[in-house]
Amino acid sequence: MNTATQYPGRRRRGVTFVELMVYMVIFTLVAGFVLQLVWGGRKADEGRKRLGIFQDLRISSLKVNRSLSQATRILFPPADGKPYHQVVYLSERGELMVLFLNDKDNLYLMNYDAVKKNQEQPALLARRTMEFNASRPPGTQDYLQYLARLKDERGVEFALTDGILVRNIMR
Amino acid sequence: MKRGFVLIEALVAVLLFAVICFPLYKLYFQTGLGQQRMVRDFLAVTNVSEKILNRIDHQLEKTKKALDPLGKDVTAEVLLGLQESGDWSFLGQAFADDSGRLAIRYIPVIKSEVEFRGFSLDDSAVPSDHRTNNPQLLKAVLDSINKRSLLETVDSRWLDTEQLKHGFKLNYIRTLKPEF
Prior knowledge:
The structure holds two protein chains of two kinds.
Chain A: H1 3-6, H2 17-69, E1 73-76, E2 86-90, E3 96-101, E4 107-111, H3 112-118, E5 123-126, E6 129-135, E7 143-151, E8 157-165
Antiparallel strand pairs in A: 1-2, 2-3, 3-4, 4-5, 6-7, 7-8
Chain B: H1 7-63, E1 71-73, H2 75-80, H3 89-94, H4 99-103, E2 109-117, H5 128-131, H6 135-148, E3 149-159, E4 165-175
Antiparallel strand pairs in B: 1-2, 2-3, 3-4
């Protein structure tokens, strides 16, 4: 027994093929848009985070440049053109400064005298640093260049390089 | 009478939704991503330009004379560490560790040029209340700077991944001859 005979006077109607197609197209359009929105939002957020890391690195690089350009002596690396992973220098106040990468891939600038006197913590310059190379061209006393390579949370790599002219070298 | 949507109404609703939301989507995501890309590239190019400038400055500190030729396209030196013979050979050494290519790896097309040229400072470079103190001394100082110095420019231009053009110029006044 069908519905029409069960409930006389009530007309039963489904959807036509064309209506179904139209609903599907509309649904696809809206779903596509929402997906794009979510995907775009996530991408923008990742980009913002990555840019934040890069911006921090740039600020750290400015700090290092300012400190190193006033140094009175570069103790390490030697001026042989080879890359090394640490920089040791004397600041304009005669403090021993060390720029180094620790075993957790964090790049630090340490004021050794302040650590010894006041247990001051080294300043964190960058996280997730894959590589830090510093070198001085052969025979130069007053120039140092470096390259820092970093990865963000998703493994996207970026690098920052700079050269510093050290102006207060005591000869 | 109970009545649903007709096809035209539904399509108009979808069209309106798209017309309203597409510019919002573009504003928040595409434009935002473009700006992020620009800031990222700008940071990278700033540092590379600084490195070029500081390395040249260091060289001039040693040689005390302008480089020959006075203008040069240094893109190959920066990207490949190319070491040509002559006055500019030092610059390729500064990027021989692949640092230039790594730093600007997300920029598909870039061109960097360095140029030295003369320039002229006049008394407008000095605050107005200092100009009248000793005009003769001021003139002598400005003449001395103009004679002894050159303006060094690092001009970098690049195309980002969306083929948009960007540019960045770093100017630096460099004294080549000592005053006395």
